[in-house]
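Look over both lines before class:
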Amino acid sequence: EHANIPVRPVFSTLPSYAAGKPPAPVEGLTQYKLSSNENPLGPVPEVARLLAEFVTVHRYPDPLSTALRHKLSARLGVDADDIVTGAGSLGALNQILKTFAGVNADGVQDEVIYAWRSFEAYPILVGIMGARSVQVPNLPDGSHDLDAMAAAITNRTRLILVCTPNNPTGPALTYEEIAGFVADIPDDVMIIVDEAYIDFATKPGVRTAVPLIEEYPNVIVMRTFSKAHALAGVRVGYAIGDPEVIGAIQALLVPFGVNSLALAAALASLKDAEGVQRAVSEIIAERERIIPALRDLGYDIPDSQSNFYLIRGDVYGLVEACARVGLIVRPFRVGVRVSVGSREQNDRFLAVAAEFARTEGIGA
């Protein structure tokens, strides 16, 4: 007998979030997950030491993440009151949407504009809040069509999500492109710039949008410790914005949303900026080695400014070919996304990709 307990009707309309699948154990085969954009090098040594010695799990965390916010304020050149933390940048986004988008007093859905494809959690979170997604197709190179996104604004638009570098396609917008876009957007529409992968961007002109906040209080920038800092498992991220906007978000915080271990690990990682940058540089070097090699094999890969790359087209046979040698990669409707792994893992993938290209006639 099934429980007859009604849930909100919106749940029947939501897509599900398909996280990168963990490898299924195969005897005698070492497996690697290249499907979740994780940092394969792990956190800096200070974080590992802290995790081994952490003894305050019986204490509640600081609900305002005060020490972390002050450390970030010094790093970013903003006030601590301009920062709010969350359980990863996804947690921060959840709080932002909860504050600004949903169903208005007249029962009309607010609208949230974002590029598509982009981060697959966007339609889920927007739908949960009761708002309506307005998806604007990417340009042929996989980047945001900013003109079309601006043209999609209506009197119901409350937020625009800009993911740069964009997951899963890879391209990033320059600061000037974002600044020009922001200048044309009505000041009652919030613009959320998701910079989860910006530490891996090397394209000239790509830099954080944080300086725009001073002139445009409708801009919020989201960052995370999951990628460059390799803290995906402890969940800590943050948003930077105008203090009045951040105050509104802060008022709706889930109590103790960022745990003590995550806060301590983030602070420890910030102490070793050089160590974090060494790992980032190693991942970038591997990305710049892999993508040209794959293109030489005939694969269609857009520019990637991230710690992953997207192989476009009908290449889904790669997923099974990789699984046979212990590599887990991520299929999307637009292609197959592969996270940059260690050199050994990347070499294994290149060997599979070369054989697949030969047998399937890729680039022929």
Q: What stands out?
A: The mean pLDDT is 93.
